[in-house]
Amino acid sequence: MSRIGLDNPETDPSIDESPFADLPEPLILPVPTMLDNFQTVNILAPLVRCSKLPFRHLCSLYETHVNTTPMILAEEFSRSQIARTSDFSTSTDERGVYWMEPRYSAVSSGSSIHPEDRVSKSYHVSPAHTRLPPTAEAPTKHSVLVRGALIAQFASPNGKSLADAAELISPYVDGLDLNCGCPQKWAYNEGIGCALLRKPELVRDMVRTVKDRMGWNWPVSIKIRVDPDLQNTDTLVKSALQAGVSHITIHGRTRHQASTEPVDLEAIKFAVECARGEVPTVANGDLWDLEDARKMRETGVKGVMAARGLLANPALFAGYDKTPQHAVEQFVNVSLDYGFIFPLFHRHLAYMLESHFSRAEKTWFNSLSSTVSTVDYLASRGIDFSSSRSTIWDARRGRTVLRI
Length: 404
Known about the structure:
It comes from Papiliotrema laurentii (Cryptococcus laurentii). The chain is built from 15 helices and 11 strands. The protein is of the alpha/beta class.
């Protein structure tokens, strides 16, 4: 899909392209390689109905390096074109380009990244895109230019459906994640999500089935919850390692814990230790600001994943404590460009603006019933999305907090 204005200098002749003219081509790396080689890797969680293309694109403007699709049912996806069209869409420009800081200075030139860790011939390389990094100048002498990644998350009760889905979606994504953490009762009854937490042999066989179909180097990760009996977590992690899992994301709550209960960082640390450094790990749960991210990294994980924190503030990883006005403006732009359906467009804006509205304003905003009425309301409150439609967006410029 062509983009209108965003990150596309060809659409605006007034933009000076010269600062970006000498940029090197960004490295295109598998997610495990990113996690192993760079200090800070930020990830958008697979949000039910919410981590659709327009929202993923928005987050990618604000230092979210890896985006994940909503959970997709592999059986439906593999057998129904209607399901594929409904559940997944992408564009050549949804992945961002970032200056990332290597864990070791030798990585600054890419020299310590083994050639086999780069995108191999078996990986799909997206067509040329127009995305640019937030700044033309590297923040430090060691900074490396890296293209972001997109992971498709699937839920499946068997390996064949998962492999079928992987084969269908592989030209458009950078890997697959198996959902072993959805706590909803319907999912458990279907044998997916948390139903897999105590079926380590099945998880192992499912990962192997996808690897056999797609090739051993094709990234397949799992996302789990911790178990009340941590021995079960240990068994699950070790079984996944035996299958060749690429990385593991750990949500620090059990299947029965609500999101209102605090995340268990010690349980995350235990799961990290179970992985024994064989694959990188990612922490998830209760990440609302950069301080939460810092605490999560103390568990030993290589990356952090946010869910509700990014819904409330898509610019969280760029250092904003609230949704900045330009994030709202950019979201309106990408949503209009992609043709985002109104219920999700409106829901995302409600999440972003919640901390800025009084109770009466929330009630009024929730009564709006169309994209036009919503855009008109935002314009009446000073949200100027039209003037920013043809600029290279720099997500780091300014610290303006939304004031409405």
